Amino acid sequence: MTSNGMECSAANDVLLEVKNIYKNFGVTIALKDVSFSLERGKVYGLIGENGSGKSTVSSIIAGMQPASQGHMVYKNEEWNPSTMLVAQEKGIGMIVQESGTIPNISVAENIFLGHERLFSKGLFVDRKAMTQKAQELLDSFGISMFKASDRTSHLDMQMRKIIEIVKCLYWNPDLLIVDETSTALSLEGREFLYSVLDRLRKENKCVLFISHDLNEMMEHCDNLTVLRDGVIIGTLEKKEYEPNVIRKMMVGREIKGDYYRSDMDACSDEVVLKADCITTLEKLLCFSLELHKGEILGIGGLSDCGMHDVGRALFGIEKVLDGEVKVRGCTISSPQDAIANRMAYVSKNRDTESLGLSATIFENIASTGYRVNRWFANIVSGRKENAYVDNQIHELSIKCAGKHYAVNTLSGGNKQKVVFGKWVASNADILVLDCPTRGIDVGVKASMYKLFYEMKKSDKAIILISEELPELIGLCDRVIIMKDGRISHEAFRTEGLTEHGLIDYMI
Amino acid sequence: MFRNRKAKDALFTFAFPLAMFVLMELLCFFLKGRHLVGSLLDVKTLVRNTGISAIIAFALSFNLSCGRFDLSLGAQRLAGTIIGGMIAMELGLSGLWFLLFSFLCGLVFGFITGMVFVITRVPPMVLGVGIGLVWECVPYTMSKGKGLNLFGVHGTEILTDTVFTIAVMIVVAVFVSLIMNRTKFGYEMKAIQGSQLIARNSGINIFRHAVLCYMFAGGLVCVAGIIDAAFQTQMSSTMGLASNGVVVSNMFAMMLGGYIGERSNQATGVIVASLTLNLFSYGLTLMELSEANTSVVNQTVFVLFLVFLANRYYFRKRKAEKARIAQALEQRRIMSVA
Amino acid sequence: MKCSEWCSKASASFRRFTEDRLFSRLLPVVFLLVLVCVFSIATGGRFTSAQSMKVIVQQALIVATVSTGACFIFATNNVNLAMGATTVLTAVLSGMAYNATNSVVVMVVVALLLGSVIMTVSALLSTLLRVRVMFVTIVMMSLLSAVQESILGGSTISLPYEMITMLTDMNFSYIAFGSFFIGCVILFHFTDVGRSLRFIGTNSTCAEQTGISRNKYMLIAFITAGVGCGIAALLAIVRAASIGSKTLSSLNMDCMLALVLGGMSIFGGSKSFAFAGVVGAVTVCVLNQGLLMVGVSSSIIQGIRGILFLILVCTAQTRPKGLPAPEG
Amino acid sequence: MKKVLVVLIVSLLATSMLFAGGASEEKGAAQFKIGVATIHEGETWEIQKKYFNEEVGPALNMQFMFSEKLNDANGLVDFMDQAYAAGCVGIINFVTSNDAVAQGSRKAEEWGVWFVTQNSALNSNVAKITHNLGHCGASATGMGRAYGEAINDLVSDGKEHSIFIFSGAAVGGAIGQGAASHYYTVEGILNAMKEKYNLKYELGIDEIINNQNPGEVATGNPNVKIYIYPGTNVSSAITAAQTQLQNGPYDIFAAVFSYSSFSNAIADVEKSTGKNIKVLGTVSIEKQTSTGFSSMDSFGDSVLSAAVLNPLNIQNGMCAVILYNALTGHAEAMKANGHTILFKVEPWFCKDAKTYENISKLDNSHETYVLNGEDLKALCVENNPAITYKDIEAKLVELSNIDAIIEKRLK
User: Fold this and answer.
1) Which among A245, A495, B89, C256 is least buried, having the fewest CB atoms inside 10 angstroms?
2) pTM (predicted TM-score)
3) CA-CA distance, C143 to B216, in Å (whole number)?
4) Is residue D18 part of a domain?
5) Which domain holds residue C45?
6) D188, D211: one domain
7) Structural domain includes residue C76
8) What is the pLDDT of residue B131?
9) How far apart are CA A465 and CA C269, in angstroms?
10) Could you say which of D12, D243, D264 has the minimum Cβ distance to residue B286?
11) In this structure, is residue B11 part of a structural domain?
C-alpha cells in the first residue's frame, strides 16, 4: 500500500533525473550511457566495484566535474552545476571520500568554512554566534563526542568525517550524496550516519548512498543500483535484495580467457622477502609476511585496513619501529636499500609519488638507470640510456608522440606503463605494487596482467596490493586479507576461491 | 583548571621579555655597571623600536604565514613611505596626514604587487626580485634620488612621540588581531594555512585573499616606515634591493611572535617577541658591541631558534614511537605465549 | 564569436609552443640577440664595438659563475638567497689568507674550501636539521654579511697589485670560469648527479621512492654552488684587488635576475639547464651597458630590468592553476 | 587573464619608457664625454649634477655621464668599463679608497682615458701612472683647522665640555681605506679638544680613530669626556648616541655626515635631561643646511650650532678643469715633474645662522657659482698657455676666503 502510494507520487516527486551520461578520461571510458532518476523520500544505494564509476557519477551530480555527454534535470530544470558550491546552494550536498576538514581551526569554523558571512556583525564575524549555531546543529543530531569549539586537529578521522556530514547537512540539502564515508566510521559513527539517512527520508529528502558494505546497503537503502565498468547493470527494489544476486551483478564480468591467468602453477619455496613482526607508528602492529620466488602475493582489504602501509613499510618508505624487513638477508630501512636489493615500488598515488609529471617519458624511465647506464665514472652514456628507455617504450608499447614528451600528456594507462617501464628496466625482481590498475582502462589492464604473469614466470616475486578482489583472485598465488592492520585471512590459489568467500574477512 | 591554564599561558608569554630583561640587566650591571633601563628616555627608545619592529613583523606575518616570502616588501616600504610623505609635504599637511598618506600609498603598492602575483602566479620570492627592482625605482625617480627629507618639517614631531607610537602600535595590533580573529579574512587565513585546496573547494577566493594579504602588508610596512623616517628625519631612496634589509631583520620577531602567540594570540605574541628582541639588542648596544657584532649574535640566535622550531616535535614523536614499540613488544609476548 | 574561438586556439597553440623545451631554451638567446641588435642600431654601431663587447664579457663573468652554480640549487626547486653573501665572505677570508701567506695557491684553496663549507652548513641545516630552505637562506644571508662586516669593520682587504697583474696576465679569470662552467655543464647534463637533481626538482617524493636521496643530492647541489661562490670570490679579487663591506652587495639579486633572464625554469625540475646563468648574466650586462649608452639614467635601468624580468618570467613559464605552493 | 597581463605589462613598460625618456640626458654638440663615478646621492648630488650639466659642461665643452651611487673599487671598475664602452674620454672619480684609486688609474691607463679623483689624501703608489691626473679634495689640514675653529667656538664659555663624535668611515681614512675627510675631521676635533683642555690621550690619535668599536676615549680629565662611535649605519648610531648623550656628560654632538638624522634623538635628550646639546656637522650648501640653522631647539638655539662646509662644487669644477687640460694635451702642466698632485680645497667654517644666510645664496646659479664658467675657462692651458698646477693651487687658496667670495658674488 505504502509502496504503491510512493510509486504513485513518484511521478511528481522526481528530484533529479540523469539522462544518458557519458564520461571519458582521455581514452578511458568511466561512464557509458548512465541514466536513472531519484525521487524524494528515498535512500538510493549505488554499488559496484572500485572503478565502476560510482564516484564519477556522483561527482558529476555534485558539480565537481562536468559530464562528457548527456544531461541532467534537477527540480524540473536543466542541471549543470559549475562548482560544488553552486550545487550546495541549490540543494545538492556531497560528502567526499577524501578528507575535507582543515586541522588547525575549530569544529564550528570547519562547519561554516567559506560561509562566515552568515554570522557577520558589521565587519566582523561573530564567533560566539557561529560556535553556538554549530553547537545547536551538533546537538540537533545528538552528537556529543566533541564540541563545536574544539580544535579539529584534536579529533580523530571518524569525528572529522562527522563534521563533514554535519557541514553538508547544515545546508538542508534536498539531495545528499554520501560517497564511501562509512568505511572511515566505527560503529558509533555509522549509527549516526544511519540516523541521518532515516531523518532525511522522513523529511521527504533524498539520499544517494555509496558504500562497499553490502550489508549496510541492504539494510538502509530503499533501492540499489549496481554499476559495473561505467554501465548500469540493474536496479533492485528492497524486496528483491539477495546478497548473492547483488554480488553476482557486481562481479559478473565475463572473464575472458587471457584476462586473468588460468593456470594453477605453484611457486618455489625460496623466501625472497620476509617481514618479521614489523610495527609502524600508525597502522601495523607485529605484521609478518613471507614472499617466495616466483610468487604473486595479493593483499586485499578495505582502504584503511593497513594494506597500503604494508607496501610502504616493505619498501622502506614508512619507518619500521620494531621488527625488520629482510630481503635475501639484507635489512631494508630505506628506499635506497630496497632498490639496491632490486626491489621496486609502485605507489597508489601514481601522479604525486611515482611519476615526475612535468618531466618527460625519457627522464622518468631513465631515473632508475643512472648507475647501470654509466659510460665512464659518473658520466651517463646517452646511447645506453636511449636503449634503456626505447626498450621499455617498445616492450610495454607505451603510446606516445615521442619519448621526449612530458608524462602529463599521456593517458592514465600509459602513465602507469611508464611507471612499470622504469622498474622493469631496472630489472627489479621483487615488486611491491600498490593498486597498480587504479584508473586504467580494460585494455591496458589486460596487458598488465599478462606482464605480471610473465614476471612470475621469470621467477620474480610480486606483492599485489589491491582494493579489487577479482584482480587478487584472478592473479595471485596466495591472497592475504587484512583488517585493522592485521591479517584476518589467508587463502591459496584454488579453483573455488570466490569473492564473497573473502569479503566477509574484510568487514 | 581552565583558569590555571590561562595563567600558565600568560606566564609563558611574559616569561620571554622578563627573562631577557633580567639577563640583559645582569649583563649590563656586571659588565658596564649600569642599568638596562635607566631613564624615561630608554623606555621611549625601547617603545619606539619595539613599535616599529612589531609593525613590520605584523606586515611580514600576513604573507609569511601562508608560506609566501615577499622579497619586495622592503621596496614597498620605501616607495610607500617616500611617496606618501612627499604627497603630504606637497599638500602642506601635518603629522597624522603623513601617516595616512604613507599607509594609503603602501596599500596601493601592496595591492599592485598582489595583483601581479595572482595574475602571474610566479613564486613569491622570484616575483619579489622583479617587482622590488621596479618599486625601488619609483621613489628614486619621483624624488630625483633625494628620498624623503622630514628635517625641520613642521608637524612631524607627533610621529616620534612615545604615546603616539604606542597608540599606533596598539591600533595596528588591534587591527591585526581583529582582522585575523574576527573577520571573514581571518577565518579564510587560517583555512588557507591549513589547506589551500580544501579552502578553495569550500568557496574561499584564495586569489582575492592573497591580494588582500599583500595589500595589508604593504600598508603596514609603510606605517612603520613613516614612523622610522620621522624619527630619523629622512628616508633615503636606496637601490639594488638594499631596501629589504630592514624587513628581513624583523623576521626573527615575526617567527618568535608566532611561537609565543601559540599560547595566547598572534598579536600579543608579536609584540612580546619584538619587545624581547629589542631588549636584547638594546642591551648589546649598551655593552658597546659594534653593530656588526650585534647582528652576528642576533642572527646566530635566530638560526638556533629556527632549528628548535623545526625540531620541536621531535621528542614528542620519539615518545610516540617508543610507546608504539612497547606495544609491539607486548604483542610479541602475547603471540609467543599463544 | 569566431574571433574569440580563433584567439583561444591561438593562445592554446602559443601555450603549447611556450611549453616546448626548445622554446624555453631558445627564447632567452633570441631575446639577447634582439637586445644586441636594438642597442647596436640605437648607438650607431658603437655598442657592438670590440671594446664594448670585451667590457660586457668581463662584467658578466662573476654573475655568470655564481648563477651557474646556483642552477644546481634552482634545479631542485629551491632558491638560495645567500649566494651573494657567501661569495663576498669567501672573498674577504681568502684575501686575508693571501695577505697572511703570500701564496696564490693558498688563496685559491681557501676560497674553494670556504665556499663549499659555508654552503655545506646551509645544506645540513635544511636536510639534517629540517629547517625550510627558504628560511635557511634568508637567515644565512643576514648572518654571513654580518660576519663579513664584523671582520672588516670599516676597512677593506687590499691585495698587492703585482699578484693581481700576474693572475690577469695568465687569464686566470677566463680559465677559472671556463673550467668551472664546463665542469658544471658536464655534471649537470651528462652525469647522474645532474639528472638526479633535476628529478628531485620535478618531484622529490617520487625521486625518494626511486632511490634518489634528497639529502645527499641537496648536499651535492649546495657544494657545487659553493665552489661557484669560491671561484666568483677569486674573480672578484682579481677584478678589483680589494674587498670592502659593500662589495658585490647586489650579487645575489643579479644572479636570480640572470637565471630567470637566461630561461631557467623557476620551478626547477626537468626544464632546468646549466647555461641559463651565463646567457642571463650576459643579458643583464648587455641591458645595463646598452641602456647606459643610449642615455638612460642608471636608476631607471634598474626599473627596466625589473619589468623585463617579469615579462620574461610570465612568457617563459607555465602558469600554475592555483597559487604557487608554500615551499616556492 | 592573459590579456590583463599583457595590458599590465605593456603599460608598466610604457610608463618606464616615459620616465626613461624624461630622464635621458640631452645630447648637445659636446665634444668630451666624461664619466662621473659618484658616491653621493640625494639632494647634495642633485645640486652637483646641476653644476656639472649647467655650468661646467657648456664652459668646457663637456658632456657628463653619471654613475649610480658606488660603494667601492669593484663598482668603480664596473662603471669605468661601461663609461669607456660608451665613449667616455675622462673619468672623475669620487670613490676614495686607495684600492679604488689604484684600480681606477690602472684601468684608465689600460683604456687610455684620463682619470682624476676627489680625495683628501694622495695615493702615491700610482702617482707615476700617465693617465692618473691626481687628486683634488678637501684639505686635511683645512678640515682639522675648520673643526678646531668650530670646537673653540663652541667651548669658548670657559666651562668643561664633553663631546660625542659619530665618526662615520673615519677608520682607516688616513691609509686610504675609509673616508679621508672623516678621518681628518675627527683628528681636528681631537686635537682641538686636546689643546683646549690640555688632555693627555692614553693612545695615539691615529689609534683612537682607527678603533672599530664604539667607546670612550681615555682623556686623562674626568670632566672632559670624548666618545667615538664609528660606522655608517645611521639608525644604530642614533640609538647609541641617544643612550650616551642621555647617560653621559656629553653636551656637544659632532657628526661627520648626516647630522640631521640625529636631530630628533638629540631633541628628546634635551627635553628629558634639560641639557643644551650643541650640534656640529659637515654640510654642503643645500636646503637642509638652511633648515638646520633656522629651526630652533627647546633652548631657542638653532638645531645646527656650527658647521664645516665642504665646497664640493669647487672640487667638481677643478676636476673638470684638470681633465680638460689633459684632454687638450697639457696633462704635464697638471703634474709636478710627472708626479700627481693633491689639490687641496679649503673648507669653510660657518659658526652661526647669520653667516650661513649669505653662504646659502651661493652656488645655485651661473651668477652665484663660486667657480663659474669664466673662472674655469681662465684656468685652461688652451686659453692661457702659462697656466700650471701652481695657478690652480693659487686659485684654491683664493677660494678659501669665504668672506671675499661673498663679497665678490653677492655684492
Assistant:
1) A495
2) 0.88
3) 28
4) no
5) 22-316
6) yes
7) yes
8) 94
9) 31
10) D243
11) no
Q: Dig out the grid coordinates for A115 from the structure.
A: 560561509
The more confident residue out of D3 and A96 is A96
For residue range A194-234, list pLDDT tens digits in order: 888 898 999 999 999 988 777 788 888 998 998 887 888 88
Residue C49 lies in a domain: yes
Cα distance from A446 to chain B (closest Cα, Å)? 35
The predicted-structure confidence for C245-284, as pLDDT tens digits, reads as follows: 888 888 988 898 999 889 888 788 888 889 899 999 999 9
Place of cell 609467543: B336
Which of B183, B186, B202 lies nearest to residue A114, judging by beta carbons? B202
Which uninterrupted H or E stretch holds A32? strand A28-39
A interface mutation test: which of B178, B202, B316, B332 has the most A CBs within 10 A?
B202
pLDDT of residue C17 exceeding 70, the answer is: no
Phi-psi region of D227 (alpha: psi -120 to 50; beta: other; left: phi over 0): beta
Whole-number pLDDT of residue B145: 81
- CA-nearest of D232, D20, D140, D141 to B134 is D20
DSSP D236-290: HHHHHHHHHHHHS---EEEESS-GGGGHHHHHHHHHHH----EEEEEE-SSHHHH
CB contact under 8 A, B125 and C323: no
Which amino acid is located at D217 in the chain?
A: V
Q: Nearest residue on chain A to B192, judged by CA atoms?
A: A102
- Indicate the length of chain D as a whole number: 411
Please state, in angstroms and rounded to a whole number, the distance separating the CA atoms of residues B84 and B159. Answer: 14
Which residues fall within 8 angstroms of residue C168, CB to CB, at 6 or more apart? Answer: C238
Domain ranges, residue B170: 37-249
* Partner D contacted by B33 (CB < 8 A): no
Chain B positions touching D260 (Cβ under 8 A) are 149, 151, 233-234
Chain C residues within 8 A of B120 when measuring between CB atoms? 310, 313-314, 319
User: Residues near B62 by Cβ (< 8 Å), separated by ≥ 6?
Assistant: B213, B214, B216, B217, B220
CATH number, domain of C245, equals: 1.10.3470
**Chain A neighbors of C190, CB-CB under 8 A:** 379-380, 382
Asked if A270 and A450 count as a contact pair (C-beta separation under 8 A), the reply is no
How many domains does chain D fold into? 2
Its ipTM equals: 0.86
CA–CA min distance A379, chain C (Å): 4
Q: Mean pLDDT, to the nearest integer, of C173-198?
A: 94
Residue B233 has pLDDT above 60, yes or no: yes
On whether residue C208 sits in a domain, the answer given is yes
What is the pLDDT confidence band of residue A88, given thresholds at 50, 70 and 90? confident
Which of B48, B246, B291, B295 to probe by mutation at the D interface, max D CB count within 10 Å?
B291
Chain C hits for A357, CB-CB cut-off 8 Å, are: 202-203
Instruction: Identify the residue whose cell numbers are 658616491.
Output: D39
Q: What is the pLDDT of residue B60?
A: 93
> Which chains contact B through at least 3 pairs of Cβ atoms less than 8 Å apart?
A, C, D
Domains of chain A: 2-251 (3.40.50.300), 255-342+431-507 (3.40.50.300), 358-428 (no CATH)
pLDDT given at position D16: 46
Section B300-313 average pLDDT: 93
Q: How far apart are CA D379 and CA D385, in angstroms?
A: 9
Residue type, A243: P
Which of D84, D212, D231 is closest, CB to CB, to C55? D84
Whether D357 is in a domain gets the answer no
Name residues whose C-beta falls within 8 Å of residue C1's C-beta, 6 or more positions apart in sequence.
Answer: none
Contact B55, B224 (CB under 8 A): yes
What's D278's domain CATH number? 3.40.50.2300
Domain that holds residue D74: 30-138+311-348+366-410
Has residue B306 been placed in a domain?
Answer: no
For chain A, give the mean pLDDT: 84
Count contacts between B and D (CB, < 8 Å). Answer: 103
